[in-house]
Amino acid sequence: MELKEIKITNASGIYSSTFNSLEDWINAGVDGVILKTSTYRSREGYVFPNVAIDGERIIQAMGLPNPGFKKMGEITKKLKEKYTEIFVIASFTSGDKKELIEMVEYLGEYADALEYNISCPHAKGLGSAIGYDFELLEDMCDVISEHTEKPFGLKMPYYPTDELLKKCIDSSEKADFYTNINSVGKAMLIGNDWGISNKLGGLSGPAIKPLAMGQVYRTRKLTNKKIFGCGGVVTKKDVSEFLKAGANSIQLGSGIIHYKTKKDFVKEARKGFNYKPKNYFENQGIEEWE
Ligand SMILES: Cc1cc2nc3c(=O)[nH]c(=O)nc-3n(C[C@H](O)[C@H](O)[C@H](O)COP(=O)(O)O)c2cc1C
After folding, report:
1. Pairing label, strands 57-60, 201-204
2. Per CATH, domain 3-284 is 2.60.120.230
3. Which residues are catalytically annotated?
4. Which residue is closest in CA terms to ligand 1's atom 6?
5. What 8-state DSSP symbol labels residue 66?
6. Of 56, 58, 10, 59, which Cα lies nearest the Cα of 37?
């Protein structure tokens, strides 16, 4: 399968740290899987509790726990050996050129594509530190494209202004796809049974769907490249709305908590590719997009 044919994957970080959890997604019927973001060295992450749920609002500050890119590369290799048909995307982050070269060359050897996480809202010096430093981002995108033949994309943060979003798109000419969006930092939940150890975390789930769809729409106005919609997808209706907003494909994230199995979630999401609600936008006075 090629990148352009991929419709449904999991989102990075959602049951994607081990071979077995990724295999579960494959057995559930996704077209491709995305591994947990890896860093150059292994990271323990933050102490528990690191996820809190309050109705449709989920916040987490995991602190990017992962065994380092070498171990994640081994999982990627094993997956490709066993599931030749499955598209495997390795996610990684670093703002250091030397580290990045090693990571991209290694992960790019096994993965079908790479997703550069420039948006983790709570890992110091990583993630969103890159997504808001556009000079660094441009340099890093040049480095990635020079060191792999594989397609690569950016896991974007939520950009509240068009100016910031355009800067990101302009700085990443070499990128092949965009994933909109990562969880939205810096959020807090107080008053449920427990908080999170980091106090502030990234907000996920249906609470961010309107922001995610808005950013898909805004990104589509700036580029023809592939866009994965991600953020608050739970039902087929959510999928169809992301597609209407301009996404080509969908990533399934924390919506999994609403399903008994991953298979049920993937089955529902797949229906969204043919789902045409009646009077789609008529209720809002919008018959067709411009
Ligand atoms: C527990 C958890 C861990 C996550 N880890 C990562 C990660 O390692 N890399 C990444 O790019 N995004 C990570 N994310 C963000 C998700 O991939 C996704 O962008 C975000 O949750 C919004 O989608 P959703 O509302 O469908 O969950 C994580 C999210 C959660 C809830």
Report:
1. antiparallel
2. no
3. 120
4. 13
5. B
6. 10
